[in-house]
Amino acid sequence: MPLSFLMRLLHVRLPIHVANPEDIRHVSVLLATGLIEAEIQALESTVRYATSRVATVLRITEAGFTELAKMGDARFREEGTG
Fold first, then answer.
1. What whole-number distance in Å separates Cα of residue 73 and Cα of residue 60?
2. Which phi and psi (to 5°) does residue 41 adopt?
3. Out of 6, 18, 19, 23, which could bridge 55 as a Cys pair, Cβ 3.0 to 4.6 Å?
4. What is the pTM of this model?
């Protein structure tokens, strides 16, 4: 889930390189929605028709931090502490 990936980004030093295909999809969604700044590049492949890519997450945007804050509020309400 892209928002779970966004939460994971809070706990790593950015920029970070991402090569896992599922994580690259998360980066793509978060980038398209403006929650992060990132670059997605195609890799030169030695295999014909390969679709290998790598992404570099540069930073979480203000919109991303706002979304994370909303997610935190929802978690607290679900746990009955907020």
1. 18
2. -120, 150
3. 18
4. 0.78
